Fold this sequence. Notes:
Helices cover 38% and strands 20% of the residues. It contains five helices and five strands. Strand 4, helix 4 and strand 5 form a beta-alpha-beta unit. 29% of the residues are buried.
Amino acid sequence: MASPLKAVVIDDDRDLASLVSELLRDTGRFSVSVAHDGRAGCELCVSEKPDVVLLDYVMPVMKGDEVIRELRGHPATRGVPVILMSGLHEAGVLRDKIPEGREPGGAGRVSFMAKPFNKQSLLSAINDVLNVHP
């Protein structure tokens, strides 16, 4: 059996972070680490070197766009794909705030997902940013 993929969930809503991490673990495909603010999330990503980051946009300490900017600026996390989750439904507004800087080959992709979401849309978004087509 292949090693599980590493996911980092960064969300100040502890209930939602717990639910997302449980959903991912239940698939058997992921090991999951959780942080509840942007600064702690950046530090966790550098230490864990995840395969994917699920990131809330509106958080204390650092907003999602600031987290992405910091992740893109660090060699260990530059190419990690991010799914930016938000209850804000103005995807165009969020896209304007997201720094560019994808790595060659599609790494470093940023995808957007509106809250609330269901398990299938979450897994589909993850498969999409990881370029996995089951």
